Amino acid sequence: MPLTPTRVLNQLKKNNYSPVYFLQGDEPFYINQMIEYIEANALAEHEKSFNLQIFYGKDVDIATVLGSCRRFPMNSDRQVVIVKEAQEMGDWKKEKALEFLISYLKKPLPSTILVFGHKYKKLNANSKLFKTLDNHAVLVNSLKPKDYEIPDWIKEYVRETGHSITEKAVMLLSENLGNNLERINNEINKILVNYKSSVQIDEIIIHKYVGINRDYNAFELQNALIVRDVPKANKIVNYFGANPKDNPAILIIALLFGFFSKLLMVHHSRAGNEGAISKLLGYPTFVAKQYAIAARNYPIGKVIDNIHHIKKADLAIKGVDSGRITEASLLKELVFKLLH
């Protein structure tokens, strides 16, 4: 069975290394994290000159990689061979090359650590290569977290750095940054670099150090929609149109889809109070209160209509039947339809 990134990272931090790692999946953050850790820690600095080899998939083939793997380390107990962007290698469909790789996997050189970073894709679980990796290597599936898992991920990440974060700050980050772990990680680190001692990250700190406008952000747009505040929603969406690079429409649309999808769950579950909604969605009480208000303001029929509007906008933003409409115009039209 493929392992989780967290389990493998814990093994690495205990200095437990294996001869072969195959890191695959649609979440590049963990793949990068594991590769960076091995690159930085598997060898001492003075050993890296002769014993660390880094290839990029588009520039290398399996034969070259395996040739490097069969070398013996120089003045070191081991060597490290890393293939970044391995999904771009042209050998994955070449039967002879795969046979060479499978042969090596069954009997790898113990003094070599071979790492494949295979991003955005996964091998066919029924293939011979997958089964060989599963039996003879460390095979890792790096899966993109679900939207509802992001708040807990943020809290755990901040806790591991020795700091803390308020619930409102967590929601502000998760609602505005989506489930892009790389971006979330970068924004949190951008905050923490300003503090030498432990700090509790709150919404004031978020607004100060993260590129989220205090009054005009995705979180505030959602709040305006919840209470059907038409003037405020229009002001925010006009601001988005004037600042498209800081407020990409595709992320706003994804946020709105997530919100109305969860609101549909609230209606179907007949969760009648904040406690029931909090339990259903896994959100803190202050967020559940917002969904309770939204459920009163948006009957189930309107919620279904809004999800349909959002899906059409999503297709348009991705270039399907978009005509000549701009992102700014598309967002304005969408918000109008959601409110009326």
Describe this structure in a few short sentences:
By secondary structure, the chain is an alpha/beta fold. 56% of the residues lie in helices and 10% in strands.
Fold topology:
Blueprint: H1 5-13, E1 20-25, H2 28-41, H3 48-51, E2 52-56, H4 62-69, E3 79-84, H5 95-106, E4 112-119, H6 128-136, E5 138-141, H7 150-160, E6 164-165, H8 167-177, H9 181-192, E7 200-201, H10 203-209, H11 218-226, H12 230-242, H13 249-269, H14 274-281, H15 285-297, H16 300-317, H17 327-339
Parallel strand pairs: 1-4, 1-5, 2-3, 3-4, 6-7
Helix pairs in contact: 1-2, 5-6, 7-8, 7-9, 11-12, 12-17, 13-15, 13-16, 14-15, 16-17
Written account of the structure:
This protein has helices at residues 5-13, 28-41, 48-51, 62-69, 95-106, 128-136, 150-160, 167-177, 181-192, 203-209, 218-226, 230-242, 249-269, 274-281, 285-297, 300-317, 327-339; strands at 20-25, 52-56, 79-84, 112-119, 138-141, 164-165, 200-201. By secondary structure, it is an alpha/beta fold. The strands form two sheets. The chain has a five-stranded parallel sheet with strand order 2-3-4-1-5, with helices on both faces. Strands 6-7 form a two-stranded parallel ribbon. α1 (5-13) packs parallel to α2 (28-41), α11 packs antiparallel against α12 (230-242) and α13 runs antiparallel to α16 (300-317). The termini are far apart.
